[in-house]
Design a protein that fits this description.
Length: about 240
């Protein structure tokens, strides 16, 4: 059978790579969170003085649930792509790994407190990493749970950064062509069309305003490299 979408574990890892922490739940209460997701899919939290985790002694851990959210900017308006709840154990990042963790956070959202966290300023901001126990996902169309083995054992797709750049370019400069291609495929009008997701197996298009729908358009065969992905997207845009 022809595969038209990535495995769910790969899709959730790809989504996680685009996520930012919004809340962390500890001891039954939720608090605002800031940070990123590292290359292994683990949440990294920048914890400032006064945050519940801040006083946790080094070498110990705390059971937490971290909410991760990803959005997509369309025409200057952010739309939610998905929500992940990562349940696991938060532990302070060891000093020798603090710089790498800070770089991961800075790549998502810069914060001057990262410098103090790396330097280990007494009483200052700290970096925590969450070892994953399981992940609950809600993507709008699908929901479910992945255990740590399935989640951490997956990769976020072979070329996610390049795919995001291509997606942004189409949405910024070629939406008319995308609309005509979708109308040619569906045989009907396609109002307010945007490219929503792009991966080695196909493209997902978002169409509609008041009640948008997601249309999956698979490639004839999976794109094995970036050149093949570019060619598949170009063929889609030329269908009209």
């Amino acid at each position: 059978m022809h595969v038209t979408v990535p495995p769910i574990s790969e899709r959730i890892r790809s989504l996680a790579a685009a996520c930012e922490p919004t809340h962390v739940s500890l001891d039954g209460s939720a608090h605002a969170a800031r940070g990123a997701v590292d290359g292994d899919g683990r949440p990294i939290l920048l914890v400032k003085p006064g945050d519940p985790l801040h006083g946790l002694p080094a070498g110990t851990d705390a059971v937490v649930t971290v909410d991760l959210a990803a959005g997509r900017m369309l025409g200057g308006v952010e739309h939610p792509r998905g929500l992940l709840k990562v349940h696991g154990w938060a532990q302070a990042v060891p000093p020798e790994q603090a710089r790498e963790a800070a770089v991961a956070v800075a790549g998502r959202r810069a914060d001057e407190a990262l410098f103090a966290a790396v330097e280990g300023t007494p009483g200052g901001p700290r970096l925590f990493r969450v070892d994953v126990g399981y992940v609950i996902y809600l993507t709008g169309q699908e929901s479910g749970m992945l255990d740590a083995e399935d989640y951490l054992g997956a990769d976020p797709g072979p070329f996610p950064e390049a795919a995001e750049r291509m997606l942004d370019h189409v949405n910024a400069a070629h939406r008319d062509g995308l609309r005509r291609a979708v109308e040619s495929l569906t045989g009907g009008p396609a109002p307010e069309v945007w490219l929503w997701e792009l991966d080695r197996y196909g493209a997902t298009v978002r169409s509609g305003i008041a009640d948008p729908v997601l249309l999956r358009i698979p490639w004839p065969s999976p794109a094995g490299d970036l050149e093949a992905l570019e060619r598949a997207l170009s063929c889609l845009m030329c269908r009209h």
